Amino acid sequence: MVPATARDNRPVPARAGIGLRFQHHRAVLEAAPDVAFMEVHTENYMGGGSPIHCLEAVRRDFPLSLHGVGLSLGSAEGLDPAHLDRVRRVAERIEPALVSEHVAWSVSGGAYLADLLPLPMTEEALAAVCRNVDRMQDTLRRRILVENPSTYVQFRHSTIPEWEFMTAVAARTGCGILCDVNNIFVSAENHGWDASAYVANLPPAAIGEIHLAGHGVRELPDGGMLRIDDHGSRVIDKVWSLYGEALRRFGPVPTLIEWDTEVPPLDVLVGEAHHADALILVASDGAGRADAA
Amino acid sequence: MRSFSSQATEPDVPTLLEVQSAMRRGLLDGRDPAAAAVLAGVLAPADRLGIHRNTSRGTLTKALRLNFPAVERIVGEDFFAAAADEFIAHNPPGTAWLDLYGERFAEFLQIFAPAASLAYLPDVARLERCVCSALHAAGARPLECARLLDIAPSAQAGLRLTPHPSVSLVSSVYPVDDIWRAVLAGDDAALAAIDLAAGAVHLLVERRADEIAVTRLEKRRWMFADALVSGHSLASSFEIAGDADAARWLAEHLTAGHFIAFALDPAPPAVSEHEP
């Protein structure tokens, strides 16, 4: 269950942050951008040398979030102890305000498959994810956040709606939810779900962070369309709109702008963060007015 | 594995382990019929696994390009992608920490028939593996030479040194350091001037500050350094070096920060003392 102490000595304010990319390291150190926090992929900082030294320098000025992609919380075989130890060592060195991973899997039979792969939404998968989240929280001695996936396939034997699956993981382990609003939109479009209903069914108290990103669109041979979560463009209007719904339900939440491919200049990322900040402000004001009414 | 109530009522439903195993085989080898059969029964639609196969291959190919940039420049982007495809299918990474992916890439290039005419290519890959390892090695404080002065002469023979994590040694019958530098610098003139028959090179690779240094050592000196780095005792290393300069070499390696710790073999039970 949730450890007693989280060592959150640099909490993240409920404002927008950006992903820290290698190509922006120097710019960030030379002139601190006007964002609330920065997030990195944990796996990029597991070695020595200049990357981790740069991250330590950024850490002096900004709260940091460690977002892992390779621990494979959905693996039936459990967690790779060596990789878990590497995650623990990065977290101990960086003392991040947030640590997160994905409700997905990427490791099987000792092979890392280099993608976030979909899980059947079954009791068996739920039990596996909860076991692995418990193990991760026990080892890191902190509460972690788990991110909802974007998916292109479903499993015929799934029995649990994804939003219930996410809620159950949080309820059973005490972990938080990293609500990726773009992923909800992408999955909902791909599978015919109601994105607003997904957001409305997540427990507000469990939401520790929100992700926003762009996605790609691919035409299928049958004339249909598939949305691909490629994090390679601006957030689209419909996702900003869904984000607004999320803020009205959850209240202000630290929000990260994700942009991993075709990375633009730093000021474009900061611009997207400021757009999120404006929506957080509007949602906060709205809540204030509603309370006063 | 304990069966869950949902599985008990539907005996044909694969377990999570079975699903993940089938997807792994489907991703690594798209032609695996057994995997395809499992996936056809559970995935809707089954052909969408191709999206994940593309992402997976793309990510791993990019990791190999980052780790072996000189090899890629030598063979070109398309050839490298084809080689990477073949390598990945049979050598998926064992970990999500991809900074060091491609440990067996040099050995793979040795047997990859389309690259057979580039006899020096596997050794360039071996050098790049050392460079990559040096780039991402943990930092460590060098051993202070003064600490070794406290060791009794009788114990010095049994001294074993721990190398700095970024230090490695590699040798080749080809001038792979010159090839590596010229290729990465895009220096066509330097490349044209390389004589592949110039003789073997013995290289020490290390990280200094944030730069990677690749230095040629004379053969005996390289063998001495290789013995020390491999954990041979000082006595054994001196014997391998067989050179009166070995003591000076040791001092230079220590001053250069190539070692971070030492251990002493337990003293032998015999009464007689040994001079190193």
What is this entry, summarized?
The complex is a heterodimer of chains A (293) and B (276). Chain A has 293 residues and is α/β, with parallel strands linked by helices.
What labels describe this entry?
heterodimer; A: 293 residues; alpha/beta; two-stranded antiparallel ribbon; 19% strand; disordered N terminus; disordered C terminus; B: 276 residues; mainly alpha; Outer Surface Protein A, domain 3; 3-stranded antiparallel beta sheet; 15 helices; 52% helix
Kindly describe this structure.
The complex is a heterodimer of chains A (293) and B (276). In chain A, 40% of the residues lie in helices and 19% in strands. Chain A is an alpha/beta fold and 293 residues long. In chain A, the strands form 3 sheets. In chain A, strands 1-2-3-4-7-9-10-13 form an 8-stranded parallel beta barrel, surrounded by 4 helices. Chain A has a two-stranded antiparallel ribbon with strand order 5-6. In chain A, strands 11-12 form a two-stranded antiparallel sheet. In chain A, helix 1 (25-30) links the parallel strand 1 (16-19) and strand 2. In chain B, strands 3-4-5 form a 3-stranded antiparallel β-sheet, sandwiched between helices. In chain B, helix 2 crosses helix 3 and helix 5 (69-75) crosses helix 11 (176-185). With 276 residues, chain B is mainly α. The chains are: A alpha/beta (293), B mainly alpha (276). The interface between A and B is large, with 47 and 50 residues.
Q: Main β-sheet of chain A: number of strands, strand sense, barrel status?
A: 8 strands, parallel, barrel
What do we call the CATH topology of the largest domain in chain B?
Outer Surface Protein A, domain 3
The largest pleated sheet of chain B is described as: 3 strands, antiparallel
Structural class of chain A: alpha/beta
Beta-strand percentage range of chain A? 15-25%
Number of helices of chain A: 9
Arrangement of strands in the largest sheet of chain A:
1-2-3-4-7-9-10-13
Question: Helicity level of chain B, as a percent range?
Answer: 40-55%
Mean pLDDT of chain B: 90
Radius of gyration of chain B: 25 Å
Q: What is the domain total for the residues of chain B?
A: 2
What is the subunit organization of this protein?
A: heterodimer
Question: What CATH first level of the largest domain in chain B would be assigned?
Answer: Alpha Beta
Q: Count the strands of chain A? A: 13
Please trace the helix and strand order of chain B, writing H or E for each element: HHHEHHHHHHHEEHHEEHHHE
What are the secondary-structure elements of chain A, in order, as H or E?
A: EHEHEHEEEHEEHEHHEEEHEH
pLDDT averaged residue by residue of chain A: 93
CA distance, first residue to last residue of chain A:
39 Å
Identify low-pLDDT runs of chain A: 1-8, 288-293
- What percent strand of chain B? 5-15%
